[in-house]
Amino acid sequence: MLLVLLIHYVPTRTTPSPESLENDFWGTVINLELKSLSFVCVNCFVLISGYFGIKWRLKSFSNLLFQVLFWLAVGIVLSRVLNLGDSADWLIGSWKYLKARWFISAYVCLYIVAPLINAFVGQASQRQLGLYIILFYLFSTVYGYFILAEEFNEGMSMISLVGIYLTGAYLRRYSLRITSFKASVDLLVYLSLGVLLVLCSLIVYRLGINKSLYGYLNPLVLLSSVYLFLFFKKINIGHIRLVNFVAASAFAVYLFHMHPMIYGTYQRVCHSINDSATPAILVVPIFFISIFVFCVLVDRIRIVLFNAACAVGNHLCGKDSVRVPNR
Q1: Rg, C-alpha atoms of the chain
Q2: Nearest to 84 by CA among 255, 254, 268, 253
Q3: What tens digit of pLDDT does each residue of 101-133 get?
Q4: DSSP-derived secondary structure letter, 258
Q5: Who contacts 42 (Cβ-Cβ below 8 Å, separation ≥6)?
Q6: Which value, to the nearest 10 degrees, does the dihedral of the CA atoms of residues 295, 58, 65, 321 take?
Q7: How many C-beta atoms surround the C-beta of residue 70 within 10 A?
Q8: At 259, is the secondary structure helix, strand, or coil?
């Protein structure tokens, strides 16, 4: 989720292009490297879901929807308190939040079809699952990444998330030589693939082609995502309560800063950081951590409210009160 904040910060800097390469070579290189580091964010989020598997339960699904609606309301209230727009803006923004924020709708759809995917994964052999994933990525690379088919929406769609989810499920069950390196090697591969993507982008811009190679379906981005995921999978940090506490509200960071009534302010703050005399490398981490702290603390209200609603529902149904897990 920190990488999600970073990937939405990068566009507030100079946009890489053939012109920026001529006018500000090193600035362009830095921006491209920041994109390489952060573009794996969505893929890693879904890899985690696929690795552990989405266990479909009505309470968990309701919790997900409640979190979306809760942060929709928080964004509206903040926008009114801070006078970020008129009533028409927040009415239109609310509709856009539910309709046009692609990851929300795509992930909810993935959540709904997860039982079908899990059933296939459970009965498929290693060879069958591996071949299916390979064929899926061959198709998505050609049809989605190169031909730009609308169904894939450049990787911003439910069908694209399915392939990543299946990859996570495969990594949970099976191991290959290329996934059995040490954690340090996995990290090196992730960084090296990012540098390779930067070099490929520089070549494209040097040829005068104003086309970004970055996309969720780019094979280099997909591989980078896998190796960053494998790195964290293999390091043993033990059980840290603070990590789990923050992780329970990590999705809230996305729901908050991508709110239509909040995102403009997020971008303006990022522009201010870039224009400040203080180096951005010192200010940006503080800004991101501040967003995390705010979202985690406010999201505790959401968790308390939902658990209370579940307790009331269980009582009315004559059941014992059961606390809903935070994740």
Answers
A1: 21
A2: 268
A3: 688 888 989 999 999 999 999 999 999 999 999
A4: T
A5: 4, 103, 155, 216
A6: -50
A7: 19
A8: coil
